[in-house]
Amino acid sequence: MPDVRLSKNNKPSRNDRRPAARNGRPARNALNQRHVPWGGIAFFTVIGLVAAVAITFAFLQSRPSSGGPIAGLVEKGDLSRDHTQNAVAYDTTPPMGGAHDPMWQNCDARVYDRPLRNENAVHSLEHGAVWITYRPGLAADQVERLATKVRTTDYTLMSPYPGLDAPIALSAWGRQVKVQDAADPRVDAFLRAYVKGPQTPEPGAACTGAKDQP
Which of 5, 81, 98, 184 is geometrically suited to a Cys-Cys bond with 179, CB 3.0 to 4.6 A? Predict the structure, then answer.
């Protein structure tokens, strides 16, 4: 018969007692103790931070800065923002900023088939629009290629421009580039950089609800 030592109260001695349960739960031991996987949490946190930084960097790289990475880019600062209903003698053709009409030209991905009044289009530039102009007589496939870009890009407008000294010109507030062909990669680069670009005085201001006809 096993040798069981009893205390005076007929209970097992203190040396034979096993850990007692607390609050109805088994006492913790090496088998039931929960461990928080801090190493794994730290690893995946670092991976997430690295991924976020990489995505942010790629986005910033995809948008050229306003410092002149586009070949042939013309920049102009200190442009007047005065409102006037009179004709304005602009010093660039097409204009890329300056005094303008109080009413902007609607620029919600708008393709116009007739020339626009400079003063209304310039007001659109102040709101962050890019104005694509082309010399009358440009090949139909070139015009359609530009029109496709405009129809799928908000804050853009397009129109023919008589007397233009290049086949195609892209103008934003204080920025302009002229190209020979609608397939020139600078067209997309300009749109990425200057649709509501950082140099715009009022980026995101209304582009509808104003002048709807040339």
Answer: 184
